[in-house]
Amino acid sequence: MSTWFITGCSTGLGRHFAQTVLERGHNAVVTARNPEKIDDFVAIYPNTALALALDVTNKQQVQKTVQAAQARFGAIDVLLNNAGYGYRAAIEEGEDSDVARLFATNVSGPVNMIKATLPGMRLRRCGTIVNISSMAPWLSMPGSGYYNATKAALNSLSDTLRNEVAPLGIKVLVVEPGAFRTDFVGRSLHGSSIVIEDYAETVGPRRKGNDTTNGKQPGDPAKAANLLVDLVQRDDIPDHLLLGSDAYNWAYRVIEDEISEMQKWKDISVSTDFS
After folding, report:
1. Among 46, 143, 195, 223, which one has the highest count of C-beta atoms within 10 angstroms of its own C-beta?
2. What is the mean predicted confidence (pLDDT) over 208-215?
3. Looking at residues 93-119, what average pLDDT do you find?
4. pTM for this one?
5. Residue 165 is part of which domain span?
6. 45, 87, 146, 147: which one is catalytic?
7. Whole-angstrom Cα distance, residue 232 to residue 9?
8. Largest alpha-carbon pair distance within the chain?
9. What's the CATH number where 162 sits?
10. Catalytic-role residue among 2, 133, 134, 144
11. How confident is the model over 248-259, as a mean pLDDT?
12. Which of 45, 87, 134, 151 is catalytic?
């Protein structure tokens, strides 16, 4: 039995992750900004579930919830940073307050959680940090620039963190899901109130009111949750894991294109070295 600390458990992938962890007999600290949405976990699993209110942008609350988790279960074996949301706007349309809030949740939030849980993991010389990213940075789709940037930042932070903590026995996994059948493009999707007509052709089809993909996504969140819980138990886990055929196919094409472009411009790239 291991203890998982999971953020963003009220709906979507986070709820499936929490459900699967508890079904497998593990302890789970399930968190959400509104604890009423996760109280049912405690009702069903009173001995292994701890439901706590948590806004990952609130550093003081983060510290208190981690302390409560440690007081109840003794140690946190797996930190699953899942809390986050989507935001659609052309780069020019992005409102400063919206963008700041997005980065605070999607980037600073996981960092707050990592800083709060790493001391215990370092002391025990073991632990796993799972950061839920996205296939979005591979796509660079119009209208998702700010969201893409948060996930690209999370990827880079995770890769550096992995190099820092690997000698201490701590593992870091980045999960990059494709489109899963959750409410990500429904309730969880935000958008700018500024709409510039010149972006109607590029950003327009992807604005929240025009997006018709909700409920048609190819990814099964239950399968993703079962796969992830199985994977974390392994000794050999990947650095990055693409989830879904859409994520895999997109990323593969992008990598092929990037290699081709690198080769095309190689002579110019290396020409700046001292002779």
Report:
1. 143
2. 64
3. 98
4. 0.93
5. 3-267
6. 147
7. 18
8. 71
9. 3.40.50.720
10. 133
11. 95
12. 151
Q: What is the pLDDT of residue 186?
A: 57
Indicate if 133 belongs to the active site.
yes
H or E segment at 71? helix 59-73
Q: Locate 158 and state its tokens.
A: 């995770």
Domains held by the chain: number: 1
Active site residue 146: no
C-alpha to C-alpha distance for 192 and 87, rounded to whole angstroms: 8
Q: Which residues contact 30 (CB under 8 A, 6 or more apart)?
A: 6, 9, 18, 38, 41, 49, 50, 51, 52
Residue 144 gets the label, from left (phi > 0), alpha (psi -120 to 50) or beta, of alpha
* 85 flagged as catalytic: no
Residue 75: its pLDDT value, please?
96
3 state DSSP class of 116: helix
CA distances from 112 to 62, 195, 217, 236, 255 (A): 7, 33, 31, 26, 31
In a domain, 27, yes or no: yes
Calpha distance 257→221 (Å, rounded): 30
Q: Which two tokens stand for residue 138?
A: 């591979």
- Would you call 181 exposed, middle or buried from its count of C-beta atoms within 10 A (0-12, 13-18, 19+)? middle
Is-contact 56 105, C-beta < 8 A? yes
Beta carbons of 250 and 257 less than 8 angstroms apart: no
272 located within any domain:
no
* Residues in Cβ contact with 34 at an 8 Å cutoff, skipping those fewer than 6 apart: 10, 53
Length of the chain: 275
Report the amino acid identity of residue 32. A
d(CA 216, CA 246): 13
pLDDT value of position 185: 55
Do 9 and 31 touch, CB atoms closer than 8 A? yes
